[in-house]
Amino acid sequence: MLTPPRTVVRREGGLYALERALQRRGFRNVAGADEAGRGACAGPLVAAAAVLPEGRRGEIEGLADSKLLTPASRERVYDEVVARALAYAVVVIPAEEVDARGLHVCNLAAMRRALASLATRPDYVLTDGFGVDGLDVPGLAVWKGDRVAACVAAASVLAKVTRDRIMVELDGVFPAYGFAEHKGYITSEHTAALREHGPCREHRFSYVNVASVSGRDGRPPRSRRPALSAASGRNDPATLFDDEPMERSCAPGSTVGVALGERARPSSPVGEDVGMEGGER
Question: In b/e form, how buried is each residue of 216-242, taking b as 16+ CB within 10 angstroms?
C-alpha cells in the first residue's frame, strides 16, 4: 500500500503556511483556539476559536500574536477577524468558576466549548501550547501557536480584546485596583492596591497572592470567595467596596458564551500556493 506524501511546512511560508498545508491535504476548515488571562489574578479567563477562509481571502494585514500588537492594532485586527472569519466563538469563564474548578480545567473546557460553538464545523484543530481532548476531529498542539498559525493568532486576538474590554468595564466598578491599566495581571501597582484594599469579588481567591491578603488563606478557594447577600446580591462589605455589582448575563459560577459569528464560505481559489512543498499542482 502506498503511503501519502509527507507534508513539509516551510518556516519561510509565514503565518499561513501550516493552515494551507493542512488544507491541501483535505482539511478545509482549520480552526485555531487560544486563551487570554491565564496569568492574571483578577478577571475572567477568556477563550476563543476562529476559522479563517482559505487563500488570500483569509489573509489579515497585521495579524500576529496578540501579545505582540499594540492595543490600537489589536482592535483593528479584531474587527478584521470578526468581518472575515468563516466562524468564530468567544467563551468567558468567570473568576469564581476558575476558583471552583481550577485554572487548567477551566482553560481546557473554555477552548473545548469555543470550538464546539463554531457554526462552521472544523475539520482540523490547532491549539496553542497544549492539546484539547474531547474533540471529534483531529488536532495538533503547536508550541507558540499564536506565532505559527494564523487561525490561532486570530483566536488570540479575539480572546485578548474581549478580555481587555471586560477589564476596562470592571475598572469602572472597582476603580481602586487599576484594572484598565494592568488588566488584572500582577504588577507592583496591583499588588499595592491588593494590600491596601483587599481583594474584590473579581479576584481569583485560589491564587496565592490574593489568598494571602484575603484573611481567608487557610480555607479552600470556594469558601475564600466573599459571600453574596441573598437579599441584595451584594458582596460582603468587609472585603468589597460599596459599588453596585456588575451585571452578568448568567448566574455566578456558570460559563458565559459572549460572541458567535459566521460568514458564507467563498469558493476556493485554484492553484493557491502550488509551489509549496507537498502541495498539489
Answer: beeeebeebbbeeeeeeebbeeebbee
Q: Which residue has the cell 487561525?
A: 151
Q: Is residue 73 part of a domain?
A: yes
141 and 176 inside one domain: no
Q: Which residues of 145-169 are buried (b: 16+ CB within 10 A; e: fewer)?
A: bbbbbbbbbbbbbbbbbbbbebbee
Q: Is residue 200 part of a domain?
A: yes
Q: What is the pTM of this model?
A: 0.78
Sign of CA pseudo-dihedral 91, 95, 99, 102: positive
Residue in 268, 267, 259 with CA at minimum distance from that of residue 118: 259
Q: How confident is the model at residue 144 (pLDDT cuts 50, 70, 90)?
A: confident
Number of folded domains that form the chain: 2
Do both 27 and 62 map to the same domain?
yes
Tell me phi and psi for residue 45, to 5 degrees: -95, 130
Greatest mean pLDDT among 53-67, 121-135, 182-196, 250-264 = 182-196
Q: 115, 81, 108, 75: which is closest to 93 by C-alpha? A: 108
Give the cell for residue 123.
Answer: 475539520
